[in-house]
Structure formats: structure tokens, C-alpha cells
Amino acid sequence: MAIRTALTEAFGLEYPIVLAPMGPGSAMGGVGGGRLAAAVSNAGGLGLVGGGYGDPNWVRTQLELVRSSTERSWGIGLITWYITEEVVDLALRYHPAAVLLSFGDIRPYASPIKAAGCTLLCQIQEVEAAREAVEAGADIIVAQGREAGGHSGPRSTLPLVPAVVDAVAPVPVLAAGGIADGRGLAAALMLGAQGVMMGTRFSAATESLTHEQAKARIVAARAADTVQTRVVDIVRGYASWPEPYTGRVLRNDFCERWHGREGELEAALDTEAPAYQSAFQDGDFDTAAIFAGEAVDLIDAVVPAGELVQRTGAEAEARLRDGPALLG
User: Fold this and answer.
1) What CATH code is assigned to 6-210+299-323?
2) SS in 3 state form for the chain?
3) Tell me: the pLDDT tens digits for 127-147?
């Protein structure tokens, strides 16, 4: 038995599963590099490199890696409000099958992306933003709930996804935020989504660029250990993140000290920013942040990405197959 949706047909996938493009794609490191994206694509999903803020050297290195590591469809995701035309042009030179734009106005970039023959995905957090993205040329909408790790908006996944499906039909919609296994995939399909985008679960995959100690903390964490905050953006020099987006991270000493004292943190950046960068480089996660969503409850081990794709797909198939029994 196989799950066939508009997403699997568009990219020739075995499973309607997309790797969230976990950045930041900058000097502060990354999570979703070329090796992870290739592993997801090779297993039958769609791997997206986390281009994040668009550091050219980082993007170039990771796109060369994914392009040389898979013959299947892959793509890249970028933070829309921060990137430049030069970064988009750089990404397009590697001929990705898909480009995902998140958090900002996609209109300046939609035309060149589509002219290059790429499928344009747009991640949104509100129903009206989904309509605007479709009007601007988005081929696929990703409806992201606030349960997600990293940056997200104010809405929850469960009510947001069907509302977006209704608003933009027949444009395909993917569900994101709090999904980490086949049960979540099956549920998303029942809400009308054509697939899912998963991040936190793959952050703890073998091929992820996530520090090994950070992976261990993700495995040990529970949803109550996560918090949405601005302090991580402030200390990393990205305080200009637009409203209402905040980043969901695992609580640590740095978060406990500064969350709710953002103004004081901004005044202390001369000392706090260098200390934070050193902590990140040293793997000190009592200070450096670990982006993770509420799905940490469902993560119990670090395993290869290909195994995660296949396990999630098989579990979703089983859940869908068992569904008719509920009807008696």
C-alpha cells in the first residue's frame, strides 16, 4: 500500500514527508545541511537544505553536498525577510526542485524562482497570508502551527491546517508544527493536507548537523521544557525579526536569566553576544539555544533520517488502513 498525494506526485516521492529547512545557514552553524537533506530525499521524502539567513559560503557548501549526494528531488528553504536577490540567484544556480520561502513577502522572489523551473513553497502562519502567497504565485502552501521548533506564529496546527486547506483549494497544503511520527502524518492527511513538513524529529537524526550533546537533550526533553522567546534572536544579532514571530527553544540557563528581560539583554550585548557565540562553538547548551518544538515528547532516540522517513510513512499507512474499523 502506498500513500499518493499531490505532493508525492509533484516530486516523485514515496512518502508525503518534507524535511523542514532548519537553518540558520550562517556563521552560527546550522541543522539541516546537505547530508541530511540528501538522506531524506534518498529515503523517498523531500529534503530541504536549511539556507536560513543565506550566508553564501554556507549555502554553497551545503548545496554542492546535497546535489552530489542524491539523484532525487531536493530543495532549499530561506528566511524571506532577511535574504537578498543575490542569495536566491546563488541557490537557483544549483537547480533545486523546490524553494521554500518563510516569514515575509515572497513577491520579490516568486518570479525568478518560478522562471527557473522550481516549485515554490511558501510557509505561512495565518489564513490570510496563505491567500496572499497563492496570489503571489506559491505552488504549495505550508501551514505552520506554533507547536513547531524554531520560529512560528500564533496559531495552532490542528485548527490552522483545515482552515488554510479551505481557503486556498485546490492549491496543495502541507501541515507543519508538532508532527514527528506516522500518527501525525495520518492526522494531517485527514485534515486535508497533502503531506507534512517535519523539523524537530529530523534535528535529532544521525545526519543532522545538530551537536551530539544537543541531540541528547532533545531526546531527553518534554514539551514543557520548550519556550517561545525573543532572547535568542536578540543575542545572535537578529532582533529585527518581525512580529509576531518568536523562536521555540529548549529552556536553559540563558533563557531563564533573560526571558522577560529583553530590554536589559539588548543593553548588555557587548558582553553577552561574544559569550553566547563562544558557548555555541564550545557546545555549551546551558547558554547556547537548542531550537526544538513540542514534538520532543515523541522523540526517544537518535536514528538515521532514512529510517525516520520510512518508519513515519509505514506508520501512517497502518493508521489509515485501520481507520475504517472505527466505522463498525
Assistant:
1) 3.20.20.70
2) CCCCCHHHHHHCCCCCEEECCCCCCECCECCCCHHHHHHHHHCCCEEEEEEECCCHHHHHHHHHHHHHHCCCCEEEEEECCCCCHHHHHHHHCCCCCEEEEECCCCHHHHHHHHHCCCEEEEEECCHHHHHHHHHHCCCEEEEECCCCCEEECCCCHHHHHHHHHHHHCCCCEEEECCCCCHHHHHHHHHCCCCCEEECHHHHCECCCCCCHHHHHHHHHCCHHHEEEECHHHHHHCCCCCCCCCEEEEECCHHHHHHCCCHHHHHHCHHHHHHHHHHHHHHCCCCCCCCECCHHHHHCCCCECHHHHHHHHHHHHHHHHHHHHHHHC
3) 999 999 999 999 999 999 999
